[in-house]
Amino acid sequence: MPEWTKLIGVVIIxxxxxxxxxxxxxxxxxxxxxxxxxxxxxxxxxGQEGVVDMLGRGFADNRLMTLFLITLPAIGLAxxxxxxxxxxKLILKFRAATVGRLLIVYQLFRVLxxxxxIRLNGHPIFVRPLIFPMSAGALPAVxxxxxxxxxxxxxxxxxxxxxxxxxxxxxxxxxxxVYGVLTGLGSPVSVWSLVFYATPIAxxxxxxxxxxxxxxxxxxQGEDAK
Length: 226
Hints:
- The protein has 226 residues and is mostly helical.
- The chain folds into 2 domains: 3-61, no CATH class; 71-225.
- It has 10 helices and no strands.
- Helix 7 (122-137) packs across helix 8 (144-165).
- The longest helix has 35 residues, at 191-225.
- The protein is globular.
């Protein structure tokens, strides 16, 4: 077969995403098609690993990525018995609490997790069941437009804190990956030097996040005053 036929996986992914099909099925179909077109067997045989076996090995080698699924039943039960309502009531007890202030504190909280080398899936564990209900509860009345802005700000707070905070620990995979690549290219670096240079960027992300969430507070207060 011509070499260009091995790009069929790219075509399948683009078409699948354009048609809004399930991402997992699209990627799996692309992998199977690419492997078969490249001449690989479907299942392993003497001296050659099959496409299905490759996919299974890849999933097993990266199974830690799916550990967050263990938390889903606990979160579901907590929500079923009023976790969101209680968290919203809790935030109303603090008169100084606003959406922006809460998100600034949460971003710092996630940065601290990164510094300690703790990796958490913040969106399903913290944002969805706790932080978002508390953010919405910080306002006496929330319109549909305000609710969407609060959702976006919640996601931004989690992403800022997680992405930049994880670069502040020498045991985080991102730092170790950069260290490994630079060392392999012959650049004498240490993991602590990478953390050192990442610290100003993390600090700047906190400052910019605080400005963004402060402006969000002003906007929400302005809309409530109308």
